[in-house]
Specification:
By secondary structure, the chain is an alpha/beta fold. It has a domain at 3-135 and 337-382: 3-Layer(aba) Sandwich (Rossmann fold), CATH 3.40.50.720. 35% of the residues lie in helices and 29% in strands. It has 14 helices and 18 strands. It has helices at 12-24, 37-50, 68-75, 90-100, 111-118, 121-127, 141-152, 182-189, 234-237, 255-264, 282-293, 336-353, 364-367, 370-376, and strands spanning 3-8, 27-34, 57-62, 80-83, 103-106, 130-132, 155-167, 192-197, 200-205, 211-215, 220-226, 244-251, 272-273, 279-280, 301-313, 316-327, 360-361, 385-388. The protein has a 7-stranded parallel beta sheet, with helices on both faces. Strands 10-11-12-7-15-16-18 form a 7-stranded mixed beta sheet, with helices on one face. Helix 1 packs across helix 2 (37-50), helix 1 (12-24) packs across helix 12 (336-353) and helix 3 (68-75) packs across helix 4 (90-100). The longest helix is centred in the C-terminal third of the chain and has 18 residues, at 336-353. It is globular and about 50 Å long. It starts with a strand and ends with a strand.
Amino acid sequence: MAFTYVVLGAGRQGVALAYDLVKNCAAGRVVLADVDLAVAEQARERLRKLLPGQSCELVARRCDVSDVAAAAELMRGADAVLSAVPYRFNVGLTEAALSAQTSFSDLGGNTDVSRAQLRFHERARDVGVSIVPDCGLAPGLGNILAAHGVAALDEPQDVHVRCGGLPERPVGALGYKLVFNFDGLINEYSGCGEFLRDGQRVQVPALTELETIEFPEPLGRCEAAVTSGGTGTCAETFSGRLRTYDYKTVRYPGHFAIVRALFELGCLEERLTLADGTTVSPRAMLRRLLEERLAFPEVRDLVVLRCTVVGVHQGRPRTLTYELLDRHDEATGLTAMERTTAFPAALVAHLQARQEVEPGARPLEVCLPLEQYFSELPRHDIRVSLTAH
């Protein structure tokens, strides 16, 4: 059976989503929509070159996703819709999907937004469609692997997720290459991570609790610190069942000390009034500088993900460790961050299109068929190793 998918946002992640939908998700028609029609058309042409001989119909459309009625009209007739636009639009797009009576998923990134989407559960169930927020990398893949591990143990106790998108080697003053949207990065570095500690939900400030973490070459020794959004809704979902659930972002050593200094100096303030009364926007200036000076187009990226689930199984202590190391794909030009964010989300949309996700608006850690998802990841070129000891 051939499915119709709509991808909202035709930038980096949108192209990667469409690529995997066409290649691996039984797509008969994929609509790429963007507020800029030229961007959607360029994405379509790139995909045609990457996927020669494919019978799937690729369509470019203009859509302003802030217009809920227009978005709903675009979605009508689709088997599943994926959002690759900034998370602030996802509540309105959830309403649009319900109006269009189609299933919807997104790349997430903000837990408050996700919780607002989950309030549509009864309406989605009545309409007969599924709404699944937070389906990218983190939140997303890391939390699905955690849920897979929790389900595999008789008495799960602790979950630790560590994930990072990095240049293949440290570059520039931050040892970092900007691998996704600036606003998304700053959102991660702001606010608090929502964790479980001693079975209780707690808020832990971002950029704190620095730890050293070792990975196989080429990474070696790195550091990890608390960031916001990575746990998604898992702390709430597993409250009362787990003792610990936490998430930290991985960077090369020294990165977080500099980022903390930038925050403390006010470089991330939206508006700042100087002594002479002049108002400036430090964040706008920093955005421009980082986008220009952390591009490093000659340096390839990689993504590392480690999810550790600790507990008891068949009366004995047991630790499950999920590991992923992904790299830039020279054949397609897709970055590691694009691949590991988009391909797992495309798999969720394929499960939705096959009606293997029950109707309703529910967190991905409770609504997905976990064994099936895990077994199908390699077909999407996402290769996670699992060790148990």
